[in-house]
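Aim 2, interim progress: modelling of the 5-O-phosphono-beta-D-ribofuranosylamine-bound target.
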Amino acid sequence: MTTLAIFASGRGSNAAAIIERFTREEELCVGLIVTNSPKAGVLQLAEAHGIPAHVTNRREFYSAQSLLPMLHEHKTDFIALAGFLWLVPEVLLIAFPAKIINIHPALLPMYGGKGMYGQKVHEMVKAAGDRESGITIHYVDEQYDNGEPIFQMSVKLTTTDTSETIASKVLQLEHHYYPEILVQILTNKK
Ligand code: GRF
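Predicted structure of the complex, ligand included:
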């Protein structure tokens, strides 16, 4: 069995897509969900699927051991960030080399970096008049949205697109491709 931990800060629609996709892979499982917000919708998702969940805080997350004991207790092989807004501490990057993966709702290196998340990204794409946007799935390093790219997919935009319709088009790509790419990586097909 290859086990994934998902870190999420928000509603968890990407986490839901991953969990659903992994139910169709007998050698993959989601073993733990970690959030930094006690109000995160992803906690209800974890409960609905019977997946252990943990609410962390900055003191714990950036402590010397961070979440290592808990990640090992839950047999974690890979970590997927799905709307997780904090930088990953070095202790986790060292413990999980090339095994922490993130999805960003834009075509990096454009529109990435500190503070570039959620609707802000799509508002900037709209303001720039770009004719395409998309997703970037990448390995996580010590900076925001900076690690080695794994996969990108673009979507065409029209002048009638708003930042909301851009967000919707990009989210559809996320929900389709993030689970598929994670399955490929975790089953050594990528
Ligand atoms: C997604 O847009 C993802 O690209 C970004 O954070 C958002 C998470 O949304 N990293 P959700 O919580 O998975 O619905």
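The domain at 2-186 is CATH 3.40.50.170 (Rossmann fold). The longest helix spans residues 163-186.
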